[in-house]
Amino acid sequence: MAHNGGGTTPGFWRETGQLIRAVARAMSVTFRNLFRKPVTVHYPDVQRPYPDRFRGILALAYEKDTGEEACIGCRLCEYICPPQVIKVEMLKTEKRNYAKTFTLELYSCEFCELCVQVCPTDAIIMMKSFDLAAADRRDLLLDKDRLHALGLTFEPSWATGNRLRDMQAPPKPTRAAAHGDARGEAKEPAE
Amino acid sequence: MADTLARSTVEIGYGGSERLTMNMGPQHPSAHGVFRAILTLEGETVVAIDAVIGYLHRCHEKLAETLTYVQYPTIASKTDYVSAMTAELAYVAAVELVGKIDVPRRAQYLRVICAELQRIASHCLWLGTWCMDMGGALGGGATIFLYAIRERELILDLFETLTGARLLYGFHQVGGTRYDIPAGWAQQCRETLAVITQRLGEYEAMLEANAFFLVRTQGVGVISRDLAEHVGVAGPLLRGSGVAYDLRTAAPYSSYEDFGVRVPVESAGDCFARYRVRMAEFRESIRLVHAALDGLPEGPISSRPGVKSVGQVRIPKGEGYSRVEGARGEVGCYLVADGGPKPYRLKWRGASFSNLAVLPHIIPGHKVADVVAIMGSVDPVFGEVDR
Amino acid sequence: MPPLAYHALVGFIVLNVVIGMVTYVTLLERKFAARMQSRIGPYYVGPRGLLQPIADALKLMLKEDIVPARADRFIYNLAPIAFLLPCILIFATLPFAPGLGVADLNIGVLFFLAVSSLEIVGLFMGGWGSNNKYALLSAMRAVNQIISYDLPFIFAALVPVLLAGSMQMSAIVTAQHGLWFVAYPVIGQLAFVAFLVATLAAENRVPFDILEAESELVAGFRVEYSGMKFALIQLGEYAHMLGTSFLGALLFLGGWLGPGPAWLGPVWFLLKAVLIFLVVTWVRWSFVRIRVDQILGISWKLLLPATLILLMATGFVVALRGAGGA
Fold first, then answer.
1. At A97, is the secondary structure helix, strand, or coil?
2. Closest CA to B328 of B10, B74, B33, B65
3. How near does any CA of chain C get to the CA of A7, in Å?
4. Is 0.90 surpassed by the pTM of this model?
5. ipTM of this predicted complex?
């Protein structure tokens, strides 16, 4: 600001006028915001509504019709996990396979949803909550029982393996009818 | 131009005569991440700057050699974590280039929508942090910072509804995208953009004619056109110095040629010019998102079946370089593939890395207070610089 | 009661009241600033955050007192006290109601202005004694800035003194019975605006807060202080801020004058001082800061000549008024 103090050049008065107007405009913006409702959400007293696809804590699910564990111990999630936080051991029985142990190190998890994406039986899913603060890191080393318990504690998110894969490569019309998956988007079959 | 200092050792102390060597260390409220600048001061004037980077090096390029093409896009978003969509896009575009994989039109439009929304969100963060650097965390800068973050949160809500994540998305996959837009998203997107357009007017009212802001930014940190072209900066730094070069028009990718992108250019080359370029980019991105939503074609979102196993994408031998216009400039990814499911070599061109090279040319001669203004207008993100 | 004991008692009461007010004015600023930024301020401690200043004070008292290894210990330890003393001492001259004050000196305004400038000494001691380049840089900037802005500050404050014809604070207030000095045509408003701008600069408030400039110098001369010493410095800053707000209310806004019974006077005084404080806060949270050479340029090239001319014009007006037999 080149002000020649006290001079009565027209530039000086015009600049001063501009300065006053600019100051008034900036202060009026802050003043207007004084009366806007604050955007603060009083977490944890008030919960923000999470969208359907929210990627929260991981959990293991049960099958809807039989109530058995959905995980067949195929280890696809273990192989695809980028930070390699999942460790699975398979248990073979005559009818089907199970997971003997399933550990997930939540403290290193990226929450990228790739494990959910590849699961053939929709066993591993993500919840609509991230509320799992712990004081000890070992509390975040989730074993199979803990994962199943988490699946029952929180609300599951929309995304399961089959739904995500169907979204990427839309199913043929017959498969869509069988899954009963109506998301409201018309999709043509992949070329 | 910078005085030549002995580069082998830089002593922190009194450098003889009246020069003071001061460390604007990696832990600093306005370092935009972890960045160390060793400033040599004469009084209040900076005489030389020695920039030290590498505090955030996480071996991305080596990591990419150990992860498959299916796994790495989620990691790619962590290079430029403020503008994650364009970072993922650079990698996925490189894989598709080398593997000669087509991307369906719907996926291309979705990529455009997400990239432009991400640009708006990244510029919101830029505006907030820049004003906070100039105005103080306890002062007017923080006010603009909170307003800008309030707007950025709206866009992050959109991304959360789309992908489930707010910062690091994993949205892109080789051959298309991973998520499609849910019902009602387009409407929510349009409403958000209307709010942001109106609030942009408020920011400009607070800043444009404000003498305090103008004296801090006009004539400060001038990058001449020759210097910009010579050093190799890109993005708003280049366009603020008079070079009308934008990858979205110069080398269109992902169906950008359908939209007729108008590239904002300013010729002054100072911080104010870069500010004006980014504010114009705000509005242009809003227009592009509206256009893409209007013209969104039906169809599949991926040319490959859904991600089913970790090694399902195999790229035959070849190499290629893909570039996208990120919020900070040209983000490039050079990929060498050897036929397997993992790349043989991956090289990132970080936009901020090249942009930082201009600092020793423009900072000497300015005051200490200008260093933060210039750093803010260069807008580095150190995930991109150090990878 | 012997006069010495009486004055000591009044001083003690005023001191405690002032410290209490200063801590709560920090809460007021935080809530006000938060509302302007679309958020709520301190909320959880006590009902609606009202116990936050107490929590802050307790926390600072319990913090470890870290002294840098190569700091000049004597100066470093003395600095917060040297900074705080003038900032509290200025409240001694303020009359909160006719006859209610510690010492209503007949050179009240002079004492106030002189003592309030002494904070620079404590400030520089803090910057130098910390043995930290950031602190030194900031202390040097502060000395520059505060000295430059004290002159326009004094001249702007002298305009009401001229108009009232006395430096005694209670006399200045009684002279505003008919018309507050801020309502004086042209001279009053200009002097008030100059006073506010000079206050912003003398208090190191944005847009003139280059001294602390958190994004560059990370708390300026305070950077090496922790615990109770930091609390003293904060107390001093806000006490000085509040003190000049009180001065502004007294000089320009009529002090304790206001409708209603006489005992309501101090309440009006407090409200007016808080109003000035809020205006300064409003400005603080609306602007980016300007560079130190630009700050000094404004002071020497714009504000000082302007206030000087204003003062001369006021003297002219007063002389005319006196000559007119008023």
1. strand
2. B33
3. 10
4. no
5. 0.81
Pick from C20, C13, C7: nearest CA to C242: C20
pLDDT at A115: 92
| pLDDT means over runs of 10, chain A (191 residues) | 46 72 80 82 82 90 86 90 92 87 91 91 90 88 90 88 82 51 38 28
| Distance in angstroms (rounded) separating the CA atoms of residues B93 and B96 | 5
| B69 and B11, same domain (yes or no) | no
Helix (H, G, I), strand (E, B) or coil at B22: strand
Query: Which among B150, B299, B307 has the least Cβ separation from residue A168?
Result: B307
- Looking at residue A104, its amino acid is L
**Residues B142, B256 within the same domain:** yes
- The mean per-residue pLDDT over the stretch C231-257 comes to 89
Give the domain range for residue B226.
60-386
Helix (H) or strand (E) holding B333: strand B330-337
Cβ atoms C244, C231 nearer than 8 A? no
User: Which residue out of A29, A57, A121, A122 would a mutagenesis test of the B interface target, given it has the greatest number of B Cβ atoms within 10 Å?
Assistant: A29
Query: Using 50, 70 and 90 to split pLDDT, how confident is the model at B140?
Result: low
- Structural domain count of chain B: 2
C46-85 tens-digit pLDDT: 888 889 989 988 998 898 888 888 888 899 999 999 999 9
Q: Name C262's Cβ contacts closer than 8 Å, sequence gap at least 6.
A: C97, C98
Domain co-membership, B32 together with B164? no
* Minimum-distance CB partner of A5 among C40, C285, C306: C306
Interface of C with A (CB under 8 A): 32, 34-40, 43, 282-283, 285-287, 294, 297-298, 300-302, 304-306, 309
